[in-house]
Amino acid sequence: MLLKDLELAFKDENNFKKIFNQEVKFRKEFQRLEFLGDRVIGLILASELYDTFKDFDEGSLAKLYSFLTSAVTIEKIAKKIGLDIFLEKSKIKNITRKKLTDFMEAIIGSLYIEQ
After folding, report:
1. Which among 67, 102, 72, 108 is positioned nearest to 87, based on CA atoms?
2. Does the annotation count 102 as an active-site position?
3. Which of 34, 84, 102, 105 is catalytic?
4. CA 115/CA 113 separation, integer angstroms
5. Which of 38, 75, 84, 102 is catalytic?
6. What angle, rounded to 10 degrees, do the helices at 24-52 and 58-68 form?
7. Helix, strand, coil proportions of the chain in percent (round to 5)?
8. How far is CA 109 from the centre of its chain?
9. How far apart are CA 3 and CA 15, in angstroms?
10. What one-character-per-residue DSSP string does 20-48 give?
11. Angle at 113 between CA 115 and CA 78, to 5 degrees
């Protein structure tokens, strides 16, 4: 899946576009979406790991969860879907691992609200 596919998942394209608006007045909403997205990722991933790895104990599930929700892993996903290129084209500067993970979480948070 590419970023353009995620964009198409939005019922209202303005909800996708507002994530990338870097004006100060939108910063608080971005941070709120980022907060929500982080929790959505956590719950869905925990549920999937629980269902998929039935023989794993809590410690094993926690290690796998920690790896899959790490900034390194989310950055790889963001790059794989082309988020870094999209941000560059959107003239967003200083694209770091943190910035990529923040945008991924905000996208997922916004999608969650829409769905």
Report:
1. 102
2. no
3. 105
4. 6
5. 38
6. 140
7. 75, 0, 25
8. 7
9. 14
10. T---HHHHHHHHHHHHHHHHHHHHHHHHH
11. 90
Q: Please, which residues have CB within 8 angstroms of residue 101's CB and are 6 or more apart in sequence? A: 71, 74, 75, 78
Q: Give 63-99 pLDDT, tens digit per residue.
A: 999 999 999 999 999 999 999 999 999 888 899 999 9
3-62 pLDDT, tens digit each: 888 888 899 988 888 898 878 888 899 999 999 999 999 999 999 999 999 999 999 999
* Short-list 80, 81, 85, 78, CA closest to 102: 78
Whether residue 105 lies in the annotated active site: yes
Q: Scanning the structure block, which residue is given the tokens 């303005």?
A: 14
